[in-house]
Each structure stands twice: as C-alpha cells, then as structure tokens.
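Instructor's aside before we start: the two examples that follow are unrelated to each other. I chose them only because their records fit on one page, so don't look for a connection. First example below.
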Amino acid sequence: MAWDFETDPEYQAKLDWADAFVREEVEPLDHAWPHLQFVPLDGGRRKAIDPLKQRVREQGLWATHLGPDLGGQGYGQLQLALLNEILGRSSWAPIVFGCQAPDTGNAEIIAHYGTPDQKKQYLQPLLDGECFSSYSMTEPQAGADPTQFTTSAVRDGDHWIINGYKYFSSNAKTASFLIVMVVTNPDVSAYKGMSMFLVPTDTPGVIIERNVGLFGEPMDEGTHALIHYDNVRVPDSALLGGGEGQAFAVAQTRLGGGRIHHAMRTIGLAQRAIDMMCERVLSRETAGSRLADKQFIQGYIADSYAQLTQFRLFVLNTAWKIDKYNDYKKVRKDIATAKVIMPTVLHDIAWRAMQVHGALGVTNEMPFLTMVHGAAVMGLADGPTEVHKVTVAKQVLRDHRATDDLWPTEWIPRKEAAAKAKYAEYLELEVGNL
C-alpha cells in the first residue's frame, strides 16, 4: 500500500517554518504596502523585502515550482501544494517565496521551451526575483476562444512585425517583458498557425492603451492592460518554442500549471476565512448564547469545513498525479475540475464568514468582499468555469461507451433474469427445502 497522508518530517519542518514566517514577517507586508506586490522594489520596500527573500533561499524554499534542472528546488507539485496553502494567506507571500503568478507559469514555459539565450535574458531574472512578466494572450473580441484571435506577426526578413490588440495582460505596466500569442499562419488551423514571442515591454510600438482595474479600483489605475501592438518589430530569436506554430503546446504547459497553482493558494485563503469565522462566532453572543452555539452557525462551519476538505484533498491528489505522470495532458481532466470547483469553494466560505461578522463583514475593514470578488475573478482567469466544465465532461465521457440495446446495461429485469439463470441450481435447492 502506497497511500499515505503524512508529510515527511524534514519537509514538514520546512512547512512549519514557512507557516510561522508568513504569519510573523510576510502578512504584515499586506498592510504596509498593499497593492504594490508587482511594482519593482526600491527604497524602503527593497530594504524590507530583500532580506526576507534571502531567508527563504536559506531555507531552500525559493522558486519551488521548478525542478533543479530548470533553476528551482525540485520539490514537485505535491510539496508545492502544501507550501502554497500557506502562501495563499498573504498577497505578498508568493513574491517573497519567488513563486508568484503569472511569473511561475511564464518561467515554466521559458524553462521548457526557451533557448539558452532566452533563458539567460528572461528566465534567470525571473528566478532571481528581479523582474516581472506578463502573459499577453486574451483579445478584446475573442474572449476565451483563441481560435478567434487576430493579432498577427508577419515575417520581414529575419524579423517579425506584430500588429493587433491584447486585453487583460496582467501586470504589463510593471513587467519587463511580455509573452505574446499571435497568428503567424492564417492559412492553417489556429492550433497549428499560432506562435509565441518574447517581447520586451520597452520595444517601440508596445502601447498600453489603458490599465483596466477590477471592481472598486480607480479608472485606469488597474493592473490588467489593454495593449496595442503597433508594428512591433522583434527578431527571429524572440520566437518561443523552437519554431512557428507551437503556441498551443506552449500555452497548455503554462496554463495547466497556473490553474492548479491558483487552486493551491485558494486553499490557504479559504482556510483563513474559516479561521476568522470561527474566531468571530466564539467571541460574540446574541439572544442569550454564543454565535457558536447556534445551529445555523454550526451549519455554516460544518459546510465550510466539508467543502474545503474535499477541495483540498482533490487538489493534493491532482498535484500527486502531475508528479507521477510529469505530463499535464494526462491530468487535464483533474486540473479542469479543480478550476471548476475553486471559485465556488472560496465564494461560499468567504460569504459565510462575512455573514457572521454582520455589518463589519461588508466593510473595507475586513477582507471578505475582496475574497468574494476574488472568487469571481477565479471563475474567469485562465478560462471561464463553463469552458472547463465542458472539458471535464468530454474527458469523463471518453471513459464510457454507449449501448446499442434498447434498455440500459443496468436494467434490473434483465440483470435479475441473468442472476436467476446463473444460480438456477442453487435457487431450485432453496425452493425444494421450503
């Protein structure tokens, strides 16, 4: 039997260290410098945060999403999941540990598909935590359907000219470079005619039309860019993946990892909501008893615990499969399922926690509405929930077959007749003994 739900003592010690370190040193950063996680470090922030990063390196917990051959620690997805549960409590924690999205996914695809020169120019600064990147894929008119993309790159000698618009390119305004998905051959299917390029953000013609904010953020002060690529000239060496037409293969490597990493961090965030809910109901009294003694509130706690435990075990199992097969395609169904479940789990738990805090819960003095809004974002980031449900259904159906019979294979009258025929001689003995 290989089933085991225990963490080996050596790695558990690292997790215990990370738990205390995040609580005591990293979570305060969320309040000292909110919303500055993806702004390059300078001044006081660098003096405060660089030493924290060094302590993480000394513990061997820096950039755990990549293997040693790719510049990381080589812990694998299962151990990364256990660490990400802790990091999910703080918006600064992934930065301090060198495993923030979208840079984790971007680093992974450069590590897998980049040339030595590309790795030197783009990957190493990412791994060192000295720059940020942006994944520039979505287009305004196309939504979640990349076959509708129109941004193109046309060859011009030993260069390419990129033209078009990209939408929701997260962190573009502070990124050093972009990974851009474009059409390079419109005469074949999108799955064979699209390519990816590495484009420095200071390349002439890269124009950020506006920085779209999420709900509640000031207009044009958000972090999700609408980018106009206006005759952007890049050399052949900017092509990612070893040649033209590799965009979909590259994208699946990135998005598969990114989706499950989001799920890992969501576990920690949802657990934080449960912790706050439990503290509140143990601390408040109404109508003659504690909130914790009210059956309605107990239902909230039980439902939240059950939801999160099921989700956590599913995510850990998916991470284990990724380590086992080392192939995101083989785990596609499970990654998509985690992506489907994730927004609902976070929304439901955060909403219950908000409710038990009463009026305080809906104010900006508590984080619950930020969590609820984050759940909505998770339902769209890296593809909408509905698309992933379709993926799950198709994958599940592949393991089943239709029947040509008029009646289902589990039709009881036929099974009953078959059972009686199979055990006829014994059934006759029973009748004879009556």
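Example two begins here.
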Amino acid sequence: MEAPQTPQDALHLGALASQNAAATRHLYSRLELANGKRQKLEGVFEDPVMKRRFEAEYAAVQTLPEALAAKQPSKQPLRKTAKTAAGAPARKAPKLLEAGPGGTASPSTASTANGGESTTTKATATAPQSMSLTVRGSPALQQVKPEWHPPWKLMRVISGHLGWVRSLAVEPGNKWFASGAGDRTIKIWDLATGSLRLTLTGHISTVRGLAVSPRHPYLFSCGEDKMVKCWDLETNKVIRHYHGHLSGVYTLSLHPTLDVLVTGGRDGVARVWDMRTRSNIHVLSGHTGTVSDVKCQEADPQVITGSLDSTVRLWDLAAGKAMGVLTHHKKGVRALAVHPTEFTFASGSTGGIKQWKCPEGAFMQNFEGHNAIINTMSVNSNNVFFSGGDNGSMSFWDWKSGYRFQSMDTTAQPGSLDAESGIMSSTFDRSGLRLITGEADKTIKIWKQDEKASEETHPIQWTPSLAHRKF
C-alpha cells in the first residue's frame, strides 16, 4: 500500500514555520541560559535589533489609558531601611497584604540574624498594584469617637406605691408625670418637687403601660386585667374602654400625629385602636410570643413591636401588615427605644442591645457590656442612652458610638430585699435632663447629670477596637 503524499500547501506552511523558528532562535538565543531558564532583560535594549523588536511588539501598551492611569495609586519613594551592625541593608520582608486603592501598605517587619540581634523595618510605601482582600472601592471602616457626657447621679427617691413600679409617662408640659404599679393604682407626681398630686384607681390588676396624649387632656393606661382605659384628666375619670385583648395588656403607645392608640400583650398581637370611636382598626398578628413593647413614630415603619419570641417587627400601619422582621436577637426582646430626633431605634434582650436604622431596619451596631435581662431602655435628644436591668444594673451609653460611659447598680430602698433591686421602667423627662426609673423596691428614683463633672475629672476611656463595628 502506497504512503499518502503530503499536500503542497502543508509543505509550504512547514517551510514558513521552520524559517520563523530559526529567526526566533537567532533573536532570543542570548536570553537562554544553559539550564533552559531565561535571563533578565537588563541591558538587552543596547542591541538595536532587540530594541526595534520590543518596540514593535509592545508599542501599543507602553502607556496606560487615561481612565486606568487616574485610578492608579501615586508613587512615593520608599523610606530607607535600617542598616544592620555590619553595614549591609536589612532584607525587605515580603508583604502579605498590600493596601487598597489610594491606601498605604501595612507595616511589615523583617529580621536579620547578626550576632543574635534583630532589626525591624517598616515599609510605608504605597503599593503599585493592590492585592487587598477587601472589596475595591469600599470606604475604610472608621470608628465613631464617643461624645463626652457627664455622669448621672441619684437626685431623689419617691415612695408611695405598694408594688413594683411597672410604667412611667411624662406629660408634654413637663410639669408632672404618672406612674403605674403592681398595687393597681396610677399616681400623678409633681416633677419639680416629687410630691403626690393624685391617685387614680380603676384597674383590678398591675398597671403595665401609660401614655399621656400631647393633643388631648387624656391619659391612657393598660394592665394585666386585659383592660385599656382612657382617663379624662379634667374630671379624673375613665371615659372610654377599649375591649379586645384576650389576655394581659403589657404595653401601650400613642401615635405622634394620628388619633391612634397601639397596644400589645400576652395574646401575641398588637392592636390598633381609633382613639375616639374605640374601634379596633387593625390586629397586627405575626408574633408567636408575648408582645412586650410597642413604639409609634410618624414615618414608616409607624409601629415597631418587640416580642418574647426574640423578634422585632416593623409594621405598615396603613396596610396592617409587617414590613420586616428582625431576627438577630437570641433571647426575648423586652424593651425598645426610639431616638427622638434620629430615624433610628434600639432593641434590648438578655445580654444584647442592638441599634437599627429606619425605614428598612438595617443593623447598625451592638451595645456590648450590659449582661443582664434588659427590662427597660430610654434615649434622649442629647444622645444619652439608658438601659436598666432586672438585677438593678444601670448602663449609660453614647448613642452614636455605642460607648458605655457609666455603669452602676441602683441603690435599693433600706429594708428591701436584694431580689427587689430591679429596674422595671424608665423614661427621660421632656428636657432630657432628668431620668425617672420605676423599680422593684416600690420606689421611683429621679436621676440627674453631675454639674461638677468635666472632661478633665471624668475623661473618656475609649480605645478603637476591631471587635466593635458600626455599620
């Protein structure tokens, strides 16, 4: 059988390929070493043939386009490295991570063994090309430096209730405040003097929630007797009842602009009531545990609820449906606090307080350090944030940075048990300069800022930490 003949085209192509290979060997023969590796290109461009060859090959990529050149970090001269005792420069350590775009390289150390001595060199030059593991273009994480706040001290102790003080509310004129307790009574106190003005009776169980209307002469109360009452403060009598809860009502909040009342309780729902007609507008269902706290605000989410099922729900008031569910907490959420001027709020559960941004409910930061069952939280317009624990522990925080500038234990009423040192409720007055706490030792305590304190006597002891991040 005859062997197949090679086509004429293939022979012609083979000749061209071998000619090209010969020319390549002639050009690059000086770059090949005996071990097959290529040597460095230093001094190669002295040969005119090689120079012309490289210019022809790489002329189009000699300079970067303007768009890419603008994004490159500026070149800075390297700082001279330290000399060893022998006079030789220390070997530069390889950088594991270069800085991101526009940033500086992280300090690296290099050790040179010379008579048992080691020298440390720091490279502070900007990296020509980034090998950063962070997302390109993302801003550097900067921690907020806390604002200085004076420490708080006890100003007055008010006795009069015969049970745990479970609820507090300050009237819009800042002249008096109301307290509700386990003795089934609501007491009205003068804020300036602490004297008792009035006692309202009508509930047949613990009074758990109070709110004073800013537009009407009304006081609203709710209790473990399933009752929600509207008191007329001109006659000091109940003028409306809101019926519908199937179990104890634990929390109550008034809408700041609408004539709407929102209550939550042990039946796991928040109910929205028309203040005037007493009709139940919405039943906000979705929680699987007791609704322990509810807050209202002007803009969506207009209703925020915290529950012992360890979730926080944001509600669309017009539709009567949940806008979002925050499931970050591990334990039941007992307290909420809405900032009076910022569009942010905080939620507190056992050992964990979290700050959120409205309207989407984005997580901002943790308030770390108050390891107790958080019963109550309050924040004023000066960015002082208070949290009270079931064991009597109190923490004062800077709202912006999450820095705890004061922590203390409440002073128990003489003669009361250690088990009765618990903070059950709290509120700032309208000025934000007085903090009122209702406690398990049946007293109401009023706290104020220390006027004699200054940044010199009580300096901020704060250091930035990667463990605490604000998003």
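Residues 351 and 371 are 4 Å apart (CA to CA).
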